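Hey Z.,

So I finally got round to the adenosine monophosphate thing we talked about over coffee. Here's the setup:
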Amino acid sequence: MKLKIYNTLSRSKQEVTPISGDTIRMYSCGLTVYDFAHIGNLRKYVFDDLLRRTLKYFGYKVKWVMNITDVGHLTSDQDEGEDKIEKGARKEGKSAFEIAEFYKQAFIDNLKKLNIDMPDVLPSATGHIKEQIELISKLESRGFVYKTDDGIYFDTSKLDDYGKLARLDKENLQEGARIEINPQKKNPTDFALWKFSYPQGRDFDQNVDDQSKRRQMEWPSPWGLGFPGWHVECSAMSTKYLGQPFEIHTGGVDHINIHHTNEIAQSEAAEGKELARYWVHSEHLLENGKKMAKSDGHFIRLMDLEERGFDPVDLRFFYLRSHYRSKIDFSYQSLEGSRSARRKIVDFCLSLESGEIEGEDLFYREKMNEFDEALSDDLNTPRALEVIFTTITEAANKSFRGAFAKKFFEKIDEVLALDLFKNPFESIGFSGSKEILIASSFEQEVAEISKEMALRKEQGDFFASDELRAKLVNMGYVVEESQKQIKIYKK
Ligand code: AMP
Ligand code: ZN
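And the result:
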């Protein structure tokens, strides 16, 4: 089956086909590593993973590159403000390089927990300064740049179709009113390719004797000591690893107007050909109606959810319940709903048997078609999940729990990666004849309390055992006791 995807460039759904050969090349703008990723950022990377898995599921070969922004991402998209990583370093009393490395590793850890397969290449901006300088030099030799006191800028008036992705109206463009505009910029849309550490592009500024004001991340260049503008890294690294043009470029919707618009401008001006064919953008995650943002100070990280007893894959499921082009409003209540919905599927999968059942074959083949159709239509995961739930209801009625069922669910889990065959409960041992089962993402002390509770009950000390049970309930756990088992999980 072919995948149709919404291309922001054409504002329509288009069938994905390789430009040449048989591989889909895909580039995703990665995280700026000055803090932990929040669950808004992570929605975007689960989407990238879903897209890559879907392409593979439909038989395409895929090469996926995602960058790590570890330099030069300023607090505004308008090339003003402080470098976020340098700022983070000062705040934490560490070097900018240490900060970037620490948060990069934390990010990779998040990706693994969310079942996001590692990209084929994960290049960092600081490892590609040479390539970025080469790109700027090329733009300089083609007459697209000019110099101001604080850096080298791209002259957007030199490019006829500047702003085609965002469909910007060049005549009436207004930059954010809050940000002071560099008065030397020729056009409001012009953007920095190289920022100087010191004004005028000198290699040293006698006036900067206060060491704390000096940048930690800076490099020599033909234009003076400094660092690359944020957009340059993506142009330089995508082309290095994927060539130009490549097929798919992804990002959050916030990247359309500035970051991706400027990536396109740089790369297409430098090479005289298109950068990427399909521009795919995923929507934001909101909390109380507002976009979750690191700069806000308040945001939710994966570890915050784990501390509350959620499995990271519950979050993955939560994302997939909405279409990637719809906003999602996050709440713990809806995450709980996702957890129990996912457990229903897992329970069903764990109940499957290996023998073949008559009539099953055709039933699951039809369901597979419905599932594939949902995914092929611009990754319609809410519809795909609906197919799964109706499949479970109908299969339970018909007692279709055999080998074909297993194949069906294994196949869909290749693409959704929801750990459908992993028991969310872990056995922590027996108390008498009863097995104590605890949901795998639990707080450490819960295991101790549970064991103690079961032991006291076995010894006939019901008062103590009831007290321990009440303690678990107070901590937000459900204690379910049957003949053979005690199951403990977060509500
Ligand atoms: P940044 O580290 O700021 O470059 O952001 C990394 C990625 O997360 C980008 O692709 C953004 O579009 C995306 N992003 C940022 N905030 C949100 C949000 N609240 N919901 C979804 N994606 C987001
Ligand atoms: Zn980018």
